[in-house]
Amino acid sequence: SRKQGIVRLLYKKGPREDPANWRPICLQQVIYKTYAGVLARRFTRWLAANGRHADAQKGFRTVNGCGEHNFLASTLIDHARRSRRELHMVWYDLKNAFGSVPQELLWEVLQRMGVPPAFVEVCQGLYQDAAFTVGNAADGPTDLVRQLVGVFQGCPLSPHLFTAAISPLLHARERLKDTGVQLSADDRPGASAYADDLKIFSGTADGVKRQHALVADFLPCTMSIQRDHRGVLKACDLELQLDGARIPSLTMNASYAYLGIGNGFDHVRRRIELVPALTQLKDDATALLQSGLAPCQVVKAVKTYLFPRVDAST
Fold this sequence. Notes:
The chain is an alpha+beta fold and 314 residues long.
């Protein structure tokens, strides 16, 4: 069946015996991924044409989202230093975000966005009776497991469904008054999001507390936070909590890695060297050429996985 996939667990980091340190990537039939790719293209075009994207969300869009967010992060800290004003930041890393988002939330959000009912029904049909097996389990392939929650990681449509699911949170944050940081007369950002990597910030303690309260109300109904992947940048103790646990604060010389770049009081501008990045690109490209993949697959892998790394290094 085209709705049945094979999940491969890919190791990320940390203790290998911890299931949370493995990323489940679902391998699906070509016909399914082609169909889902067509749906993804139509959905993203509809979102852009109808202005449904949250300004803070840069994940899986045709913009250099990492570059924009990292530039904004350094701008905020530099602005606070020059103007001698307060700056408070809170970072959140959603736990198993793609695998835990409720499917009922997805369909309700799409309907409230005004997505055509026929398209919503098609998306629902993709997950009706969908299942997968874990192909590289320690004791061999597992039996079929129903996909009752979350979206398939590796499906072209999944990231866009996920970003749509958390858009109500970002839109609600935009409606909060007197929050964020006033950078100009018309520019008052208050959040950065790249898929499931979320950060809020404000020039006042009250502003960031109200934004955090909004996040704390939204997440328990949808997803959970990795307890060791969250933090607060502040000059005074805000005593923020999530799920009954206190969010740790950064020290003066500490930083939080957000989109690969450290955010902190004592952030250091790094001169990026292209030589190491290009050397790694050459090694990875050579490995792909020797992998036995078809030429079109090699080209796709280089464009999808290798070129973005160099772009992020410049």
